[in-house]
Amino acid sequence: MNIAEFIKALAGFSWMAVIGLGILAIARASRKQSAKGITSAVLGLIVLAVVLTVAGAGLVFIEPTHAGVVITILGEGGMRPEPLLPGLHWIVPFVERVELYPTTTQTFTMARTASEGETQGLITVEARTSDGQRIFVDSSVIYRIEPSAVPQIHRTWQRRYQDDLILPQTRGIIRDAVSQYRVEEVVSTKRFDMTNQITTQLQQVMAENGLTLVDFVLRDITFTEEYAQSIEQKQIAEQLALQAKFVVEQKKQEAEQARQVAQGQADAAVIAAKGAAEAQIIQAEAQAKANELIGQSLQANPEILQYQYILKLAPSVQTIFIPSGNQFILPLPNTTINPGVEAP
Q1: Are the C-beta atoms of 204 and 154 separated by less than 8 Å?
Q2: Where are the domains positioned within the chain?
Q3: Ranges under pLDDT 50 in the chain
Q4: pTM of this structure
Q5: Quick one: DSSP state of residue 302?
Q6: CATH superfamily entry for domain 106-223
Q7: CB 211 within 8 A of CB 164
Q8: How far is the C-alpha of 68 from the C-alpha of 74, rounded, in Å?
Q9: Which of 34-68 are b and which e, b meaning 16 or more Cβ less than 10 Å from the residue's Cβ?
């Protein structure tokens, strides 16, 4: 309770006391009893009550969340040009009064359902896009009243600044902005640009009328039932097309994988065959080289052949009979090299 309300409360109690003492004085006088002291008290309370009433009517305390405009019959135009800012003020009792306006942040919501905002009723904005589609735009205007502009607002709009200023101006600006874009741009690529355009225009209009736009919120965009169904069918068709494309890509990947496996197996077979051929060539070359070395060795030492022949006999043979005129029981290979013939 501020001081102005306190003084008004004291004035009320004083008048109640005056009434009570007056009734008591009348009762004592009816019984022919002395009421001189009571009469004096009543007169004193009447003076106090009048003073308190006048003071309570003249003192005005403005809360920090409000600003006031003084309505008067003394000044030109019926109101003071300067607003009453937060604090304690004095006005002419019974001649002037104060109209208070909130200076805190307020929200005005326009939505299709009444439960979405403070204002009851279906006040969503219906607009048409550049390609003729009908859409519904739900939005919120967050604003505040500038304390210095309270007299201007009271003179022009009074308490009707939401219904007569914010609502029609916002509707018109939204419709103008929506009409510049196609429906798919409004809900996707150009939504941010459209919101900025609406915010800029609405901010200018409200500033001209003493209001400050804090923010504009584009809450939702909805379509007619027919268009919503067409969008849903289009999305289903796109999903089916994407699924078919995915299946085709999957089959392509499987075919490519099988081709790569077959190619790998063929390459492995070629490499194996090539390796086997190279191994045979190397083995043949080694065998030829070994034969060449053996031939050279035999030419240089023919006794080696006889030695190897003896080694090849069965291990159980311990005695060999050699007839006269022969070297062995079996003829040895001819290792005699004709001097006149070149060894192969």
Answers
A1: no
A2: 3-101, 106-223
A3: 120-121, 328-330, 332, 335-344
A4: 0.59
A5: T
A6: Band 7 domain (3.30.479.30)
A7: no
A8: 17
A9: ebeebeebbeebbebbeebbebbbbbbbbeeebbb
